[in-house]
Amino acid sequence: MKRRTARLTLFALAVAGQAMPLAAQGKAVDRTRLDQLFAQFDSLSPEADPAAYRSTAAASLVEAQRLFPAGHPDVAIGRLNVAQGMAAAGEMDKAMAEVDALLPVLAAAKANHRYRASWRNALNTRAYILNFKGEHDAALAINEQLLTDYEADPARDQKDYATVLSNLAASYLEHGRLDDALKSNAQAIEVALKIDPVPADVAMWNANRVVYLYSAGRTEDAIATAQNALARLTPAMGADHPAMANLYANLGAILFRTNRPHDAMPMIRRAYELIEKTNGGPNQNSATMRVQFAQALMRAGQYEDAVAFLSTATPIIDAQLGAQSDRALNARDSMLIALINTGKGKEAQPIAEDLLKIRDARLPEGHRDRANARDNLAKAAFANGDWATAETAARESVVLRTKMLPADHPDLLLARTMLLRVQDRAGTRPTADLLYEARRLFEALTLNANLARGSAQAERQRPAYGWLAEIFTRRGATEDAFKAQQWAARSSIDDALAIAQSERAAAAEPAFAQIVAQRRQLLAARQGLEARLDANLGKPDPAFDLAGVTGELDANREAIAVLDSGLEEAQRAQLFFIPSSLAEVAAASPRGTATVMITDVGGSWLLTAASGKRVTQYLIGDQPVGTLIARLRGAINAGTAASFDRAGAAQLYVTLFPGRAGAMLRGSQRLAVIANGALGALPFGLLVPEVRGKDYLIDRLVVNRLVRAPRAGRSGVAARAVGETLIALGGVEGRKAGALMAMRSAGTARAIDALPELPDARRELTALAEAIGAGSSHLLVGEQATEAQLRATSIPQGAVLAFATHGLVSGELDGLDEPALLLTPDGRDDGLLKPSEIGGLNLPARLVILSACNTASAADEDRPQLSGLVQGFFLAGADRVMASHWPVRDDIARRLSVGTVKGMRAGADPARALHNAILTVRSGKDGEAGANHPALWAPFELFSR
Known about the structure:
The chain is an alpha/beta fold. 61% of the residues lie in helices and 8% in strands.
């Protein structure tokens, strides 16, 4: 910043020493260089090359002053260029003074169309500065004046017209006129996209649109808008255009805030790489994005990597903004959390103590970061077992938030839960009192979550469920712990799925639809009230009427409660998550079944196991579980050439199922598992009950995955018989699909073309048709295996729906942000069948067979297996899905799928049928070579709703 100011000062000195302008000497003016400089400045972007932007502006002013007297319109244009450079650099007061001085000159010359464009540009710049300074009424008046002027001019410059529309959208938003803002913004984008070449600003306008939607609480619309914008702008501007950085950054930020860190990371990385490429190296903007990338790494559990990123980014921010700047403090907040989670609490606690002192000294009473600093100190002290410091910090956080927030606000509830957690460990509160408070907090948290599922507020309070589950378990409140555990296991995708189900139900029931619509309106009003609270936390106002806002929130909640009271039981189930009780689990579980729920509750795993009337519940340390899972996945990745890590599999089994739990499994014939996190992607059948034995858990038990704790009477899927209909798709040829996908991107076409052939796919479909018996088989093979053909095919109740093709994971192809099944592209269909598309279909199959690689993978690692292709089929109406956790050999996939269908046709339930098929393939009793290595047979599991 200082260097640029110095450069402008030097230009000013040079101007002062110029001889009399040529025009004043009566000579003919050669304005060739001046016009070149003006055109060059117009072609530059301040984001792409800030230094060139300002130096070209200054050069244009020097040349204009050489040619013309001070009051000439061309000199005013040069001064305007310099003012725009100042504004782009944040020097708003200097820029405003320049604009106010030159505007009268351009206004007097605006009858000339050339100068009229510059007059408009000057007004545009003034409106931009006014908006930045918070003078939104004055900015809106200018933008409306400009729009009227442009629309009356048939010869208007389309780029400038689009800019006015975009600026008007920003002004409308500042005045709370969201619909008008979105309309003007959309007009600006459409005008700009018709200009050749497409101006770089259109990327920023799309980024603004994403922010508008997110700020209004329309999170999914914001994400979809960003993704669509990237798809539209990449061909027009190029994926690596510097102006795209803002769009990538905004999409990454929203994905991170909606708890999708793995989706967020590629977007954030692309943003900071573009900034650093343009800048010639890191700066404070790219370093700030690196901090956000580190936060995404932390959310994904990659704390060591986060520490490395933060160690690089923080010094850059310190050097450019100062060690006590907001961005530098935010980086240190992230560092201390990363240190805590890498077992370095002793390093984290001094950082937390320093941050608390800095924020207390700098921030006013009531600012959220004063409470946040105490939260972080409490977490660091908790990790060190410094209970006295942890309790003091947590209590102070609660006191500060109580002064600024309603009693049921998620941030206050989270702080109160953290205090309770500390008191539980410190032993400073009696058990009866502790449990009473924990139950009150749990009720308040779940009321909030069921009020507005999937909201940012509901996401913020999510860690509290795990803390309460831990407290209940430690204090022997098994039933309470189990209910809290079920809440802790829920992810953002579970909320998205539930919302989609309620929308489908509403579409079929007009009365219910009316309630849902009224509820949505009340929730929108509630978001506005909560936004007022959040704004006051960021900039506390002593005159803020907390009691008034709290009263409005209470009235809003009561109005929603009145609506909810009129719902029928089935409708309530569509809108609210109601956890199962242990008695319901026992009643819903077949005799001889052990039902086990294992949940990551933050720092530890909670296991609840039930079989009949027997229940056991306990906490397991996080480190041994994570280490052992990594060992086993590493052994699997090594393939069949390496020996399987039986010792690791046996150690994990004993870690998960010690004592009573192990005895429960030994007395059972079946195991039903509900697991999240890293355990959600590990087949339990490959665990080893006894390291000195030769068998696996699958040799002793039929293993079945559940998406949530069962409840008697919830679903009638168990009573369904498999039908005599097979619908099967596969035999897609990668080379043909790749050629057809060239329209999507060259990278995608190459990736598809490089996929290995699946020579057994057609054979598998034929064998499945034979296994289904004399019933109806509808095979869609090769060019017939399209999305359109699937949509056009009626899937009868109880049918088998099978896919023998490649399964692709998120990020495997350009722009692929969900997993997908590869089909043949046709017309508008890109050949990638994704969960978001599957969920909109009607597929009431008893069994879906995904005979492909990675089909139990998540839409990304943020969403456990239930959120990927499996969950898409559940939403479409399927009862059970057979899917894989890692790449599988196509001949093994064929043998397992055919064996499962044969078993079902013989009367076995799907889980037993898959179990028997696995044993047969391992032993080679199906007439083919035995395949006993877990890398071959273990990836397939059966998932049930």
